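I have been asked to look over a protein record a colleague put together. Alongside the sequence sits a line of tokens, each denoting a local backbone shape. I have pasted the whole thing underneath without changing anything:
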Amino acid sequence: MKLLLDSHAFLWWIMDRPRLTDHAGNEISDRGNTVLISAATIWELEIKRASGRLEFDVDLPHEVARRSFTPLPVTSEHGVTAARLPPHHSDPFDRMLVAQAQIEGLTIVTSDRIISRYDVAVMPAAA
């Protein structure tokens, strides 16, 4: 299985927060699965840290590498697809994750219920 972690799921995982469901945690830790982290997720989290809306003291790209997650760059095709999505979600970062998941055949690990309105596989990150 190929999993794309939404920003909160990624933060919960690296901060060892128990908010992840057992199922999501087991799938993320399963070495048979590929876990991807979008460049859009790193960008979103760093914007929130810089603005003071989030506090964390980790180097995000280092954590991606340290945990053997796969970085997922944002491509032009991702951008076009995100822009053409139905307007269910107003958050451009989440729209990008949806586009990436659609194009790359990924399951998004998220607690954002709006994402499930799109034609994309979703794994609940929190109960």
About this structure: Strands lie at 2-5, 34-38, 70-72, 107-110, 121-124. The radius of gyration is 14 Å. Helices lie at 7-14, 22-29, 39-50, 60-66, 76-84, 92-104.
